[in-house]
Amino acid sequence: MASAKQEWLVIFPDHEGALKKRLEVRPKHIEAIVADGGKGFWLMGGALLERPLDGTEAPPPSVGSAMLCAANSKEEVLDRLKADLYTTAGVWDWNKIQIYPFKCAVRTAMDEVK
């Protein structure tokens, strides 16, 4: 019997000095995630920032990624992340990855925040 999907919170720092590579491959990384979006693995994701944005910084000072995934196991999460472009291009630092089982209590879309 297959286990039920669980949410997983992933904190994935970049390799030191990987911002240039991140920006170079980002369009294809996002394209692949959007194409995969209807399959239910990616629930939320975005860049970890070095500091809050002031509206003038381009590119944003990204230092990693945070994401919420739905999977049957931690191993499934790892397998999917190993195939991601940020892994194969050398952006994410696999020595610093953190993965936690997660149970969301509240969800509010940013456009609903006043």
From TrEMBL:
SUPFAM superfamilies: Dimeric alpha+beta barrel
Short name of any one Pfam family annotated for the protein: YCII
Domain of life: Eukaryota
Residue span, YCII-related domain: 8-93
InterPro entries noted in UniProt: Dimeric_a/b-barrel, Sec-metab_biosynth-assoc, YCII
Protein name: YCII-related domain-containing protein
Taxonomic lineage: Eukaryota, Fungi, Dikarya, Ascomycota, Pezizomycotina
